[in-house]
Structure formats: C-alpha cells, structure tokens
C-alpha cells in the first residue's frame, strides 16, 4: 500500500512539476516490455504465459514509474519497515498452509486468527513502531474499548 500511495503521489507531482514527458517514457518502456515478452512467452505457454506477461508488464510499469518519477518530488520510503511487513505477510501465509481444517467454521476461525496475528506480531516486535506510533495505537485501542463498554452498559 505504501508503494501504491507513493506512486499516486508521484504521478501528481510529475504533473505539478510539468515533467509529463516522463509518463510517455514510462508507457513506451512498459509497451516494449509487453510486446517482447508476448513474443517470447505466449507462443510456448499460451494463456498462462499471457497472464504472467501482464503481471510482468504491470510490475515494470510501476517500478519504472517509481524510478522515473521519484526525482520530481522525492518521497522518503521506509524500506526496512516495508520489507518487514512483506516478509511477515509471506511468513504468515506460509504458516497458514500447514493448517488443514475442513468445514466453513474451522476455516473461518483459522483465517481470522492469522489475520489477527499480523498486527499483534507487529505490536510486540521491538523497534517496529516508534514510541509516538505506540502511543497512538494505545490511545485508539483504549478509546475503542471504552466505547464498547459504554455501548454494552447502555443496552443492558
């Protein structure tokens, strides 16, 4: 999500700095990559190859745009924190593959458990959140907890 936001903001900044020719360069590069990969992969792999060519084209378009547009208006990305998020998501996905539960309810409980583990692991990982971010999380959680208590007492 962070890269997506950065990409959108950088597109906007390219417009503001009047360097819209960079859009054309990026589109042409993605177009050339798409055509070359289509000729190389689709004859052998068919529809599956075309799908992977589309993935590669979108990736090259996004990454190329990031490389071209970041000079117009630099946006500082926290690469280490982004990497931790991606690795944690991949790790939880891999761990989830070891749980084979049959039935809707069991599967739903396992899925919810793994989704809930994501923020819990991040909160208890020392050094991931800054002290200000931890304070915001505590404030938000306590406000939600007090709201739940107030709602419960008014309905009884």
What does this protein look like?
There is one protein chain. By secondary structure, the protein is mainly α. It has three domains: 2-69, no CATH class; 78-125, no CATH class; 131-156. It contains five helices and no strands. It has helices at 2-16, 21-69, 79-96, 104-124, 131-155. The protein is flat and about 60 Å long. The two termini are 41 Å apart. The mean pLDDT is 84.
Pick out its properties.
mainly alpha, 156 residues
Describe the secondary-structure layout.
Elements: H1 2-16, H2 21-69, H3 79-96, H4 104-124, H5 131-155
Helix pairs in contact: 1-2, 3-4
Shape: flat
Distance from first to last alpha carbon = 41 Å
Structural class: mainly alpha
Strand content: under 5%
The total of helices stands at 5
Largest sheet properties? none
Summarize the helix and strand pattern as letters: HHHHH
The tally of strands reads: 0
Q: Report mean pLDDT, rounded to a whole number.
A: 84
- Measured on Cα atoms, how large is the radius of gyration? 22 Å
Unreliable spans: none
Proportion of helical residues: over 70%
Tally the structural domains. 3
